[in-house]
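Suppose you are handed only these lines of text.
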Amino acid sequence: MFKLVCGAGNEDAEYVKKLVFTYASAGCKLFDISARKEILEAAKEGAKLAGAEDVSYCVSIGIRGDKHIKKAKIDTSKCSKCANCFRNCPNDAIYNGQNPRPEGIEWKEGDSPVIIAKKCLGCGTCLRKCPTGAMGMEEKDINFREVLPYMAHHGANFFELHIMGNDKEDLARKWQVINECNPKYASICIDREFFGNKEVLGRIREMIKSRKPYSTIVQADGVPMSGIEDDYKTTLQAVAMAEVIQKAELPVHVMLSGGTNSKTARLAKMCGIKYWGIAVGSWARKIVKPFLKQDDFWKNKEAQNCAIEAAKKLIEKCK
Ligand code: SF4
Ligand code: SF4
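From them, the structure of the protein bound to iron/sulfur cluster can be written out as follows.
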């Protein structure tokens, strides 16, 4: 199973529509989207334009503290206007005063960075590249009690919870609402940035007590949102995380993510990992970005075909 990750924090409906159109045309059957009504509608439109009727939507949310519910925030008093954040954002979520960010925009002396919140995925690249400490992150939670049942009622049948935060009460509340939505599969997304194997496995064991065997997917996130290169090193941690889950012999399906790319399946097979699926986000979006960015994308058959071909090659390598 190949899952295209549009991004838990991606609220750019037009971009999601293009992504789903491209990957559904290439044969993808499962799409990970943010918990926003307009994003579900955009994804459905994209699938419809691709003529794909048998696709599934996985709605992704996070507990407090997890980076998937964070957005970048700038303290302008500390900003030296160096443009590092602007140049390194993988999702064009930072602009310099012109909104929406046009193609080929150049940074000029004296420009100030501004965050486009709906495009920000919370990946933290800008934070790491900021030399002055001006860039920070803030949490943007949703009204999950209202939104999740709506999404379930309107066709989402996978729900995913990113659980890497300290607020266990929030985890329990959100997991309960997800289970009340009666999804075909509930997915637990984990990584080891802040917690070791013992804590991660303990959380999973507790959560799957309320679920039937093999109705839960554990998404083994190597390094969340890190798949910006297509090499073995980038995907190594995803495979290592999957091995931790596999060794624990839990009644769950394992999906690789977080640094996944066209090398993931090969490395996983070399390491004897039996995976149920591979979720690809950053790399999958990066390879189609030059085509999707074109203003005339919906009329430009050549750009559409190039994007679909790139997506097909990736899906094939993820088998
Ligand atoms: S957190 Fe990531 S997506 Fe958001 S503005 Fe920073 S680099 Fe861009
Ligand atoms: S990287 Fe930091 S200092 Fe440089 S422009 Fe961005 S926010 Fe300002």
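What can we learn from it? Residues 69-139 form a domain with the Alpha-Beta Plaits fold (CATH 3.30.70.20). The mean pLDDT is 93.
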